[in-house]
């Protein structure tokens, strides 16, 4: 009889314990909802001055500053942002799968991409250029890229633009990332790296590359950087509003000077939202 009483008491205690745990779980869920408030943003991890993941796990660059400002205007603090690498070849897929909320990754707006994703912006007008070794005097004009080994990254349109419109005899070399192209350029495996002048300036300004490379100074194309969102997303209008505010309050100019100023990069003025320079 005594054993029965203990068993009943234990059972009752267990029921009370489970009920309390259930209530506690509900309370915790409500109390920690703010901890679950996250926004996932795609950026480049290997572009100094644009989007770079540093060895200590921090993120720097113009796109990072723009994305952080936009996220704040959307209601997210810097600590709410989950940064995800957005390589050139993966950007549309990341948006289509919903892996990121938006992408700010030197993402040029063009008709082919607009068939798959929507763009807010543009927020920067860059120009395609080439980076060559400082001691290379054989490339002084765009046509000199003929018969040269020209590097760009997989998924980028830069190298193909050169071959199609400027130097049809250029030998295209596609690598997985710009840092790989830089290594090839430094080791004379390739002759030139082509992408946007803003990106090239960021690399050329790095301490480890000081004096090794130079910009060709060719404005080969206009690159209108936009923030990519999923097709049909309401975020496009909200991001456009945030970008306009960033220009108006001077934060855009501050970000340009902070990230490009040390390289002497002469940027264009902030573009108007929806105005694409062809």
How would you describe this protein?
By secondary structure, this protein is of the alpha/beta class. Helix content is 36%, strand content 23%. The protein has nine helices and twelve strands. Strands 7, 8, 9, 10, 11 and 12 form a six-stranded mixed beta sheet that branches. Helix 2 (62-73) crosses helix 8 (235-248) and helix 2 packs antiparallel against helix 9. The radius of gyration is 25 Å and the shape is globular. It starts with a helix and ends in an 18-residue tail after the last helix.
Briefly, what is this?
This protein has 278 residues and is of the alpha/beta class. The protein is built from nine helices and twelve strands.
């Amino acid at each position: 009889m005594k054993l029965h009483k203990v068993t009943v008491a234990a059972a009752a205690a267990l029921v009370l314990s489970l009920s309390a745990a259930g209530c506690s779980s509900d309370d915790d869920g409500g109390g920690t909802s703010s901890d679950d408030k996250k926004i996932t943003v795609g950026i480049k991890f290997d572009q100094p001055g644009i989007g770079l993941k540093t060895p200590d796990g921090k993120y720097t660059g113009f796109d990072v500053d723009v994305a952080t400002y936009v996220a704040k205007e959307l209601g997210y603090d810097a600590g709410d942002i989950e940064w995800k690498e957005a390589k050139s070849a993966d950007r549309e897929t990341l948006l289509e799968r919903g892996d990121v909320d938006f992408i700010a990754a030197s993402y040029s707006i063009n008709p082919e991409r607009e068939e798959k994703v929507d763009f807010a912006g543009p927020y920067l007008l860059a120009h395609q250029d080439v980076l060559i070794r400082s001691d290379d005097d054989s490339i002084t004009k765009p046509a000199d890229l003929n018969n040269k080994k020209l590097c760009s990254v997989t998924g980028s349109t830069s190298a193909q633009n050169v071959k199609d419109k400027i130097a049809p005899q250029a030998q295209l070399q596609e690598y997985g990332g710009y840092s790989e192209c830089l290594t090839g350029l430094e080791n004379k495996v390739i002759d030139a790296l082509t992408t946007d002048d803003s990106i090239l300036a960021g690399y050329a300004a790095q301490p480890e590359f000081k004096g090794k490379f130079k910009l060709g100074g060719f404005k080969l194309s206009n690159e209108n950087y936009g923030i990519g969102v999923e097709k049909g997303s309401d975020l496009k209008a909200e991001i456009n509003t945030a970008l306009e505010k960033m220009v108006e309050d001077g934060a855009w100019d501050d970000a340009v000077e902070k990230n490009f100023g040390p390289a002497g990069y002469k940027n264009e003025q902030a573009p108007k939202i929806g105005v694409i320079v062809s």
